[in-house]
Write a structure and sequence with these properties.
GMP Synthetase, Chain A, domain 3; single chain; 110 residues; globular; three-stranded mixed β-sheet; 3 strands; 3 helices; alpha+beta
Amino acid sequence: MTEPVEKLDVEELKEDVIEMLKTIFDPEIPVNIYELGLIYDIKISDSGNVSIDMTLTAPGCPVAQTFPGEIEEKVDTVPGVKKTNVELVWEPPWTKDQMSEAAQLQLGMF
């Protein structure tokens, strides 16, 4: 007899992925990438593959080449995640309005 396969709770896994994203900080701004509004979309398949669309604060950001790979490595450590793919997107362009209220308060923007 085979063990029953536990169904992946995609919503719960998404919360865990978001918690991991909140531990990753922008190299130039002392705020995590999630609160900065750099994460545009998170998709998780039933098999545990994670696809993240994100942007950077500026297209010429010096970490544009390395940052997505670092994020993939960290999200891959979340239990239940099989493989992560981070795609850099530039539309819509990032603005300070995409930051959470907490991030704006932290940076004294109110």
